[in-house]
Amino acid sequence: MAEKLVIIGAGMASGRMLECLFEAAPGSFDITLFGAEPRGNYNRIMLSPVLAGEKTYEQIVTHDADWYASHNVNCRFGETVTKIDRKAKIIVTAKGDTPYDKLVVATGSAPFIIPIVGKDLPGVRAFRDLDDVNAMVEAAGKPNAKAVVIGGGLLGLEAAAALRLHGMEVVVLHLMGHLMERQLDPAAGYLLQKDLEGRGIKVHCKAQTQAILGQSHVEGVLLDDGTVYPADLVVMAVGIRPEVRIANDASLYVERGIVVNDQMVSSDPDILAIGECVEHERICYGLVAPLYDMAKVAAKTLLKQDAAFRPVETATQLKVTGVSLYSAGDFADAEDRQEIVLRDASAGIYKRLVLKENRILGAVLYGETGDGAWFFDMLRKGTDVSEMRDTLIFGQAYQGGSPLDPMAAVAALPDDAEICGCNGVCKSKIVGTINEKGLTSLDDVRAHTKASASCGSCTGLVEQLMKLTLGDSYNPAAVTPMCTCTDLGHDDVRRLIKAKGLKTIPAVMQELEWKTSCGCAKCRPALNYYLVCDWPDEYADDYQSRFINERVHANIQKDGTYSVVPRMWGGVTNAKELRAIADVVDKFNVPMVKVTGGQRIDLLGIEKEDLPAVWADLGQAGFVSGQAYAKGLRTVKTCVGSDWCRFGTQDSTGLGIRIEKFMWGSWTPAKLKLAVSGCPRNCAEATCKDIGVICVDSGFEIHFAGAAGLDIKGTEVLGLVKTEDEALEHIVALTQMYREQGRYLERIYKWAKRVGLDEIRRQIVQDHEKRKAYYERFVFSQKFAQVDPWSERVSGKDKHEFKPMATVEYSQAAE
Amino acid sequence: MNWIEIGELSDIPVRGARCVKTPQGKIAVFRTAENDVFAIEDHCPHKGGPLSQGIVHGRAVTCPLHNWVISLETGKAQGADEGKVRTIPVRNEGGKLSIALESLMLTAAE
Predict the structure, then answer these.
(1) Are A484 and A439 in contact (CB under 8 A)?
(2) What is the separation of C-alpha A753 from the centre of its chain, rounded to a whole number of angstroms?
(3) Which residue in A442, A518, A797, A802 has the most chain B C-beta atoms within 10 A of its own C-beta, making it the best mutation to test that interface?
(4) Where is the NADH-rubredoxin oxidoreductase C-terminal domain (chain A) (predicted)?
(5) Any idea of the CA torsion for A339, A344, A349, A352, to the nearest 10 degrees?
(6) Domain assignments of chain B as residue spans, ordered by start
(7) Would you say domain B3-109 falls under CATH 2.102.10.10?
(8) How close does chain B come to A811, measured CA to CA in Å?
(9) CB B98 within 8 A of CB A815
(10) A328 or B37: which carries more pLDDT confidence?
């Protein structure tokens, strides 16, 4: 008797696998096929032309009931598989059990539905199957109907164009900065947007959807910036997720998709998986070519023949009539890559090739895509293009033509002109290094030449040199990436962490497509801060992504010893505390004791191994960490105020202590130093602090955005409030706004300059609800932040950090 | 080779490092995200910063003092910085870690 083969999922991958099976060895299996949709197999890729009315459903059917019947496939369409029982080797549906010898899971993917209010309202559709298409066509039939498409990727744009053809008013909302960011670079994305807008489709990029509005049916879409788009139909096309629920329930090895080996076999040797539900070498595929490859391999594996699935390069074309667009391969910038760009704005043509070691790595073509296949062929074969490099971009027909004009000469400065005074770097060194190492970003130039890496005042000059050297490919207006691990800037990353609900560093790196496996010393601490700030109750701090000072809660010094600064609330201390400090100094032979600028005492030169013991003694006297090392609240400097001073107008010391006790432990983008002065004579120097208070007779003048470090800058006035309670609420709300918007390591004065003082005053002073909301969020996050790190470590946390792993003695080493 | 046991893989945090004290100075033993183990001198070629205290990323560590990035495989400074720190042979046998100090002794005797 033939072996029993059961297949879950009647989509394109399983259809192709059956074709291969029947071609190679008809009748070798007794086949049962389950499909959730109540119909046979059709070419899902062609749903867009069906929606556009350019094709009919009948034209896109690939396997109908007759085809399955003629190959003796027992079809069970519309019947949902509820369970795989791997022990008994049966699958379970509402109608009973079906035994299998071999099982193929081809459950495909499910559309990702953004978890927002209103997502379940009638009129909200995904774009995945024929039912969705039928519902959309019906909605388009009403007069003056409006559609909002969420998602400016391949699928969303095809839906938008098709709905527009039906006469609907269409708005496309896209979370990222440009359309189809997975396939297109920003320039091509821009051309596409212009093209679509020319067809009457409104495109809104960087649009963060907050809610879908409506009572009994969808009525509109609300964005987080307050924009509302009316809608009779909302199409969610933001992406797909591998459909792995049944595999998960069966305890198969599942990561993002069902994990398979090169033979498409899952963690159970009798269960194979193919299609969009699969993860192979950590990649999930959504395009048809690799899925067909998987189908072929799976058929061979079932027939006990040798075959191996290998990851493949894929090419994409947008199926919108009248738009020519082609993209293939990898076109991200990188140090070791070069690019060739051709633009013809009047003809609407843009072509970009990315090369590495004279081989094509990626291609983006817009407006004229005839050479796409030619480029793609060379890309896959790894053809050496050095011979035709000068004319490559013009396409196949131009090979053998005349080469491009050489680059314009670099501007008139002599080669030995000094550009960067701090590091003594001259022009020829910068230009030479850019060329030699293929540098493309300011960060690269800083790393390799040190030019503009210190004070930064020559940055403009360096950028001009880069433009001269690199031409069009250098675009300084573009967002500066966080670091070389990503192309995204800090603001985009922060926005996407919230929008996509990313709650771990690996999730951020996976979803935002980090270019390195585990980041670098620049991005990891930043991501850790953003996650701590955005998900205070859910995110588990990543210890290994913190700078050493924040790991050991002391400040590293040039000789590798540490300094210890206990908190002295508002700069006030007493005899007991001072005695305890003196005892510690004696007991541990502390070489240096110094009063800091923030009104407390610094113990310098402490060996790392002694830290817990030092903290234990300080803790006995009631000291907690002063967090003098933290990107967080440092000190609140005070003067003696109305209790003692003959000029004091308010209890500045008391308010300072109150603020410090309220805010200690909070993490901020950069260090945060506060001060409270009891009168405008300002002895606490509050007007050059991150946040300062000047007490006056009528109340409290709140200041912010001062600086007294690399830059010197007096504060700006936030506003005047009457009571201490109000002062605290304003300061806390301001801090929270900065916490939520600041870029990592960006001091408050730089943030304020970027956001605008008026905007900050509007949100913190004038908008009472906003201020209260910021305040509440700060208070909530403090619940998780106000834990003294010193006492934690005295009681044994992170013990390994303070002891050597081993000590090798002379005798051992000499053996 | 004179292999000396220094402890277990699990003694070192993932993407972290621990120190081993030896007569010739401290050695930093690193564990990467992929559980590869490397040992280098705990002394940045730039200004002697303790590399064991840096942030570990990929197969490199960033020095905590001035952000030099040192390759754990070669001990060489990355990017535009130039310098090299000594690498020490390290062995991972089923989670038990040993370093080879012979090379150290030879260097010391030179």
Answers:
(1) no
(2) 25
(3) A518
(4) 315-382
(5) 0
(6) 3-109
(7) yes
(8) 10
(9) no
(10) B37
Neighbours of A199 (CB within 10 A): 14
pLDDT score for B108: 46
Question: What's the DSSP call for residue A764?
Answer: I
Residues in chain B closer than 8 A to A548 (CB atoms): 53-55, 64
- Reported ipTM exceeds the 0.85 cut: yes
Query: Topology of domain A633-785, per CATH?
Result: Sulfite Reductase Hemoprotein; domain 1 (3.30.413)
What is the pLDDT at residue A414? 67
Taking all residues of chain A, what is their mean pLDDT, rounded to a whole number? Answer: 88
Residue type at A445 in one-letter notation: V
Angle between helices A724-741 and A652-663 (to 10 degrees): 40
First to last CA, chain A: 69
Question: What is the mean predicted confidence (pLDDT) over A107-114?
Answer: 89
Q: Nearest CA to CA, how far is A801 from chain B (Å)?
A: 7
Please judge whether A547 and B18 are an interchain contact, meaning their C-beta atoms are less than 8 angstroms apart. Answer: no
How many residues are listed for chain A in this entry?
A: 815
Buried b (16+ CB within 10 A) or exposed e, A559-588: ebbbbbbbbbbbbebeeebeebbeebbeeb
| CATH architecture assigned to A3-109+242-302 | 3-Layer(bba) Sandwich (3.50)
Mean of pLDDT values over A173-202: 86
**Domain residues of chain A, as ranges?**
3-109+242-302, 124-238, 324-398, 418-473, 490-546, 549-628, 633-785
pLDDT at A151: 93
In chain B, the N- to C-terminal Cα span, in Å, equals 17
Q: How confident is the model at residue A1 (pLDDT cuts 50, 70, 90)?
A: low
For residue B86, the distance in angstroms to the closest alpha carbon of chain A comes to 17
At A476 the pLDDT is 61
Question: B11 vs A805: CB contact, 8 Å cut-off?
Answer: yes
E strand or H helix at B40: strand B37-41
**pLDDT digit string, tens, across residues A449-462:** 878 765 555 676 78
CB A420 within 8 A of CB A457: no
User: What pTM was computed for the model?
Assistant: 0.55
**CATH architecture observed for domain A418-473:** Orthogonal Bundle (1.10)
- Which chain B residue is nearest to residue A609, measuring alpha carbons? B19
**A659-668 mean pLDDT:** 96
Residue B15 banded pLDDT, cuts 50, 70, 90: very high
Inter-chain CB proximity A447 and B33 less than 8 Å = no
Long-range interactions of A270-273: CB distance < 8 A, separation 24+: A270/A86, A270/A89, A270/A100, A270/A101, A270/A102, A270/A103, A271/A84, A271/A86, A271/A102, A271/A103, A271/A104, A271/A105, A272/A102, A272/A103, A272/A104, A272/A105, A272/A298, A272/A301, A272/A302, A273/A104, A273/A105, A273/A106, A273/A247
Residue A320 has pLDDT above 90, yes or no: no
Query: What are B53-70's pLDDT values in tens digits?
Result: 999 999 999 999 989 999
Residue partners of A507: CB distance under 8 A and separation at least 6: none
pLDDT of the residue at A814: 58
* CATH no. for A324-398: 3.30.390.30
The mean per-residue pLDDT over the stretch A143-159 comes to: 91
Q: How far is CA A379 from CA A326, A362, B102, in A?
A: 14, 7, 49
Mean pLDDT confidence for A480-491: 87
pLDDT at A289 over 80: no
CA separation, residue A314 to residues A178, A200, A428, A497 (Å): 21, 31, 41, 28
> What is the pLDDT averaged over residues A295-300?
93
Give, in words, the CATH class of A124-238.
alpha beta
Instruction: Please give the share of chain A, as a percent, with pLDDT higher than 90.
Output: 53
- Within a 13 Å sphere around the CA of A812, how many CA atoms are in the beta-carbon half? 16
Interchain contact, B6 vs A524, CB within 8 Å: no
